[in-house]
Amino acid sequence: MKRNKRSPLVSRTSATKWRQHLAWGVSPRIQVHSDAKPRRADSESAATALLSPLRHREPLAACLVLFVIILATGCKQQTITENPTAKPPVIVAPQSYEASAEQLLAARLPAEVAAEGWIRLFDGHTLYGWEIAGPANWSVKDQTIAVTGGEESLLCTSMPWLNFELRLQYRCGKDTDSGVFLRTPLEPDGSGVDCFEINLADNAPAFPTGSVVGKQKSQSKTVPTDDWRSLEIVVNENDITVSIEGEGVCEYTDEIGFPAGRIGLQHKKGSIEFREIRLRPLGLENTLDKKLSQWTKYPKMPGEFSVNDQGWLHAKGGRNQLESKQSYGNFVLLAEFKMPKPEMNSGIFFRCIEGSEMMGYECQLSNQAEGGNPLVPADYGTGGFFKRQNARLVAGLIDDWSTLLLVADGPTMAAWVQGIQVSNFYDDRPPNENPRKGSKVESGTLMIQGHDPETDAYFKQLSVAKTDD
């Protein structure tokens, strides 16, 4: 289908007032509809309304370098004074972050790493895919997320995660009290109440750095330092393990556990920086085998699905579909695929009506860019949602193996290609059993698409894990 042509050279995301969503189109306050026009979801400041066009990927300037814009919104900046007699006020101001296609493409992960399911939660240049709760001065500089002041605040991922391995680096001041929240709502009731918190506070004797706050004290011997430290957290069902600088410091098993939730970076006191934030979902199982025993073919449709001697699924020629025998509601899916030409097209459909002809959401597989500009997908782009949201970047490889990580949770969905997040969509349409006509959160089947006679796509893996059990 023909698309409106645009020529942006930069990708944009904004960080506005506290409790303001940072990603395009996944906000409890401003929501994106299928017509790509913003609509108010509830009452909000005029400043937020003015900033909303930034969510819809209409860059206002051409630039090949990263820069930060403090937006003139016509409203007063919010000033937070913790102790006006001892320190200057902390300014929490609307901000916008931009990154070039070159910068985002350079942030892609190596193929072998992405094939294991690893993704970047922070692309190093923008806060795409993050939300703020609480007025603190979160910022991005030198490929680092930093906060130095303000009130207690969480910077959270827009998508929830259930079982995962999380790796990051952090650096904090000697009096810092911070933490990494796991399976958390955007505004939790408290650590251990509806989420887990891994403490980052060297001077907290009850629960020092590496502890599961309120649950398990760590054996960490860390002392305040100006150096960067590595933190690794594994959350698998009710088990949590924490390592600092490669050394295990805490193990904890919860009797009940919490459902899937966001990952949050906390500001409570002092300053802290985060970088190289990566995640790998756990529990993925490959659904492909030589007999396609977990899938249903449609032999009367044109085109063909087969498995070659290497165990790869081959979709070739004609409009066809391959349907999963299982249904999935909330899930994580990892696909490793290859298409020899950029103009070739396929897709992964989900929450489909069983037995229908691809009546579901479609996560697009298309590596074609208009005019060779990776920021302008020719047909929604790999990881974009067909007729819902463009990918912000065409990050897939031509005639080589690419990876797609697709996450769906309720009305929110997002995708990463080669480890970089390219979409972040919230479906606020009225409910409908057919996702082509409205929002659907109930379970449905998966379908792999054979798009047209030119389709020639290979899939090395289609691994899935349910996250709503």
UniProtKB/TrEMBL annotation:
It comes from the Bacteria. GO terms for molecular function: hydrolase activity. Residues 117-280, 290-464 form the 3-keto-alpha-glucoside-1,2-lyase/3-keto-2-hydroxy-glucal hydratase domain. Residues 427-440 have a biased composition (Basic and acidic residues). It holds the Pfam family 3keto-disac_hyd. Residues 427-454 are annotated as: Disordered. Coiled coil: none annotated. InterPro entries: AL/BT2_dom. Gene3D superfamilies: Exo-inulinase, domain 1 (2.60.120.560). This is 3-keto-alpha-glucoside-1,2-lyase/3-keto-2-hydroxy-glucal hydratase domain-containing protein. It comes from Rubripirellula obstinata.
